Amino acid sequence: MMQYGSFVLMLHSHLPYYRKAGMWPFGEENLYDCMVETYIPLLNALNELKEEGIRAQITVGLTPILTEQLADEHLQNGFIKFIQTRIEAIQGDVERYPDPELPHSEHKAFLADYYYEYYTKILNDFTFKYKKNLVQAFKELQDAGCVEVTTSGATHGFLPLLGTDESIQAQIRTGVESYRKHFGRNPKGIWLPECAYRPAQEQEDPETGKKVLRPAIEAFLFEHGIKYFFTEYHAIEGSTSSDIRRDFGVYRDIQYIPLPNRQSTGLTTHEAYWMKHYPVAVLGRNNRASFQVWSAAHGYPGDGLYREFHKKDANSGMKYWRLTSKDCELGDKMLYDPVLAFNQTKMHADHFVSLVYDLLKEQQGKTGEPNLVMVSFDTELYGHWWFEGVEWLKHVIRMLHKCQGVDVETANEYLEHYTPQTAIELPESTWGQGGHYWVWHNQHTAWMWPVIHNAEIRMRQLLREFPNESEPLKVRVLNQALRELLLLESSDWPFLVTTFQAKDYAVERFEKHVDNFNQLADMVESGNLDEASLSAMEEVDNPFPNIDYRWFETFSVPPEQDELVLQTVC
Description:
It contains 18 helices and twelve strands. Helix 1 runs parallel beside helix 5, helix 13 packs antiparallel against helix 14 and helix 14 runs antiparallel to helix 16. The strands form two sheets. Strands 1, 2, 3, 4, 7, 8, 9, 10, 11 and 12 form a ten-stranded mixed beta sheet that branches. A two-stranded antiparallel sheet has the order 5-6. About 45% of the residues lie in helices and about 10% in strands. The longest helix is centred in the middle third of the chain and has 30 residues.
């Protein structure tokens, strides 16, 4: 049987730092909801496939800040309390329905029983099957060759807009160190936060005001042993389209600013490439295959049989309704039927697998060589936003593993089998609306970036003044200062401001981390170390326990590797 090529699935898992920063509507409950609906069901699906003898061979990105939260004892215990409260609320519905005086009460009784079983199983799986540690569960799947786990920037900082190379260095170094701690190996791949890429360019140093040459993002990746990253299709192919966007889900109403026209490059996403100056590979998202999921108008998650995300029962908060139609008002939604909905995932999985097969076969016909279809999605789309999405994924993986002519591979497996043959350069780009930086830097968020840059300057000055501090309390203060800097750099805060979904919460969180950072810097500079205040911050903001403030270090650009790349290509 002729091999048409490889299918690579990348799931990018990320949530902001919610630990002890509110519960509802923004805070820890958002993490718990994703654990209930996405992370635990995904682990169950991957383990179910493993028991069938199918190693899923997908790539799963876990951002360091999410990993730290999933491994945190406070949040693990908080999740148990949260889900027990949910089960109690569902029990109220079980007792309430059926009620002959309420319309459709027999169907709601059926759904209440369905949710009671669902949540009870999730609680049992978390407590007994996964021993409360979902990170360990992903590690075991990686050790068994079922998945490949990638890292990211420590707190999902928007790397191209950070003012200093030291900040990029600290984001990546901390991400790599966190990965080593949790997974017992070095990461091979990375998800650039927001797929945000910047080539080498001259920029003004925020401290000196002088023009300096800022290295391309891949220089930092190469320095830390990262072998590959992902990008959007338009960064590779070029585009004259004004319709570069991700338009599924709650954020599709973001103001749309078109991407400036970029001449077609003649390249495709059907292969991986070397970056021009360093042997770091890049894989681009296949737009056609991804569109079938992302598109609000045409994507599978918009099917009327699937569960409605926004409408909830007034008593229990359970979601008893289905989408019905794209134009249907919330008050007119029909009741949800999980049997019909989950059956629909089989049809949509079959359609997707056929699409991937056809894309690979068509491209193989053009080139005569096996090629690539890589798709990347937010993991939280599956289960949390699209309740039936994990089941769809399971069907897709199962079908593709049986599909002759298609190899299902992790990103690193693909690169080991098909060494890139071409070295390229990428433009500034993201996977956000419009394909550029606007979602994170616009009229609503412009005030945040000088604040971030001032904190970066101050951290640089602290490191210059205390390059090798040994006094234990002062080291703790400096380490916490870097921790707060990383947290205030999170791309989530400007993103949430832009979307207006949680603007006040995001501003409050951002300003709190800024205040903490400045208070810590004041301590060090004045010599008045307040251990009680420090301990209070450490108790709340505690990710990356092995952090070292010296990770905020000057970046020495490694020599460009043109010759090495060419040797590898040849």
